[in-house]
Design goal:
Blueprint lengths: L14 H14 L1 H4 L6 H13 L1 E3 H8 L3 H13 L3 E5 L7 E5 L1 H10 L2 H6 L7 H22 L5
Antiparallel strand pairs: 1-3, 2-3
Length: about 150
């Protein structure tokens, strides 16, 4: 490839290893989540609800960096499974409130060991490297959020 197009080489892209690693990591959750009938995205929604018990769709989207078009069908499936309820806000009909059900709360017990299983021996990173990667990734996410909210970076 000509030197003037070197910037288009896959090996020169920061986005590619981030993308590929993200897919690999998310895929490694499948053996733990599939028996529970959960996708990774449903799992992270449940994590937010286990922490907060309820949230509106906009809040979930902001926390998880997902849009309503992604969340709505996912939330409908979680509701059908009996893990959440969806109801319109009494104050503002445009807002949908998502609440965890007793079955959704009980699911927490079945999921509690997943983070430990995922961290035990599956990563080539040392604990210090993992913490640095975590910090750097959130630096990207926080910068993106600041830019989206119109604040100067």
């Amino acid at each position: 490839m000509a030197q003037e197009y070197e910037q288009l080489m896959l090996k020169n892209q920061l986005c590619f290893p981030l993308y590929a690693c993200g897919r690999k990591i998310v895929g490694s959750y499948t053996p733990y989540l599939k028996p529970l009938g959960l996708t990774y995205t449903q799992y992270i929604v449940m994590m937010v609800l286990w922490e907060n018990e309820r949230a509106n769709v906009g809040q979930l989207g902001e926390i998880l960096h997902l849009d309503a078009g992604t969340l709505t069908p996912l939330l409908k499936r979680l509701e059908k499974a009996g893990y959440v309820t969806r109801e319109r806000s009494k104050e503002d009909e445009r807002i949908t409130i998502i609440s965890i059900t007793p079955a959704g709360d009980a699911l927490k017990e079945e999921c509690k060991d997943i983070p430990i299983r995922m961290s035990s021996g599956k990563s080539p990173l040392t604990e210090k490297e993992a913490m640095e990667l975590y910090r750097l990734l959130y630096k990207f996410l926080d910068n993106d959020q600041e830019t989206e909210n119109g604040r100067k970076v």
